[in-house]
Design brief:
54% helix, nine-stranded antiparallel beta sheet, alpha+beta, 15% strand, two-stranded antiparallel sheet
Length: 360
């Protein structure tokens, strides 16, 4: 059956409608895939945060905190004494007395007035330092208590010690438990990711029906095996690829005469896939659709590609590219497939075409 220009136009219109429909199906099926990736990432982040919970900070006990606060408070007495000494000298000047008589601070420390002031201020300072020490870890407080026992220690040295970061305590049992949970969740997430990815990949889903092995990579899905007496290699873009980058390629790698050269396809293929530039005479045929070209070597025929049921069905996968050279046949289509049935249909068509050239 010959295809005139009107039939070609009708087929292209039908393909546009099918592409829009299948594209919408792929977009909808990609939603759970994207959601699954976000869910997996969220689960792994949650587990990472949970593993941090294994690192515990043991808080200081009340006795150790009080002891350190008391020692730090003692070192504030000199500051209160200096302020008291300044006050006494100001009072002496106001009374017409010589302020130098208050130069000996040890004498001022024994005054009842200073003792009353220090007692009141000591309670204030202790409350402040005790509240701070209560919030620190046991390791930090114990370390600072050791340094505070030195008679020559200064206030700034204790303050610096109090600012040190606490060392985390790891519970071995909890660490082991969380580690096991992380491994189990990672395995479950990986399985779920692969299963979800396979469920939206029509080529991978077609593998059991073609009795071929599917390998899903980061950028492509590949099927290899024997189907209806031919060794095949089927390749497609990754299921999450953008619409403009999607393709399916079926390659028959045996049973075709090495001398045959056929190039039938778009003048400019939609993507930059590797397509050999075959050297063969260009053929003019009224059945070649607009925007396509045909090249044939001596003795090669394109009847199956231009007429009959096979030719009609092949062009339902428009845009489609057929190249025969070096003893194998490669058919590439950029038609967006959403169902494994479409993949199997394309493979069957390619195998039928290959059989034709095998008998050539």
């Amino acid at each position: 059956m010959q295809l005139n220009a009107m039939n070609s136009l009708d087929i292209r219109t039908l393909n546009v409608q099918q592409s829009a429909h299948t594209g919408a199906q792929v977009a909808r099926s990609a939603l759970p895939f994207a959601a699954g990736r976000r869910l997996t990432a969220t689960a792994l982040i949650g587990l990472a945060l949970a593993s941090g919970a294994c690192a515990e900070i043991e808080m200081a006990d009340q006795e150790s905190a009080a002891r350190l606060a008391d020692r730090r408070t003692e070192l504030e007495e000199i500051n209160v004494l200096v302020a008291y000494q300044k006050k006494r000298k100001e009072e002496a000047v106001a009374a017409g007395e010589h302020p130098d008589k208050y130069d000996d601070a040890t004498l001022l420390r024994e005054e009842d007035r200073f003792k009353r002031i220090w007692k009141k201020q000591r309670e204030i300072e202790f409350t402040k330092f005790f509240g701070r020490c209560q919030k620190l870890s046991k390791g930090v407080v114990d370390k600072c208590n050791i340094g505070a026992n030195n008679e020559s220690v200064e206030a700034w040295q204790i303050d610096k010690c109090l600012e040190e970061r606490p060392e985390a305590y790891f519970d071995p049992m909890r660490v082991a438990l969380v580690s096991v949970l992380i491994v189990l969740f990672a395995i479950a997430a990986l399985v779920a990711y692969r299963q979800t990815r396979r469920n939206i990949d029509p080529v991978a889903k077609a593998a059991p029906r073609l009795q071929m092995t599917a390998t899903q990579g980061a950028r492509s899905t590949v099927l290899e095996g024997t189907y209806k007496g031919h060794r095949l290699r089927i390749e497609s873009a990754a299921p999450e690829a953008d619409g403009g980058d999607k393709y399916v390629r079926v390659q028959v790698v045996d049973g075709i005469p090495a001398s045959l050269v056929v190039r039938f396809g778009p003048l400019a293929p939609p993507t930059g896939l590797e397509l050999p530039d075959l050297d063969a005479p260009e053929i003019s045929d009224a059945r070649v659709p607009e925007g396509y070209k045909l090249r044939l070597s001596d003795g090669a025929s394109a009847e199956e590609l231009l007429g009959g049921d096979v030719g009609f069905q092949l062009r339902e996968f428009d845009p489609i590219d057929v190249r025969i050279h070096d003893g194998h046949m490669t058919v590439t289509t950029w038609f967006i497939m959403a169902e494994p049935d479409q993949v199997v249909e394309l493979v069957d068509l390619v195998v039928v075409s290959a059989e034709t050239y095998k008998r050539a």
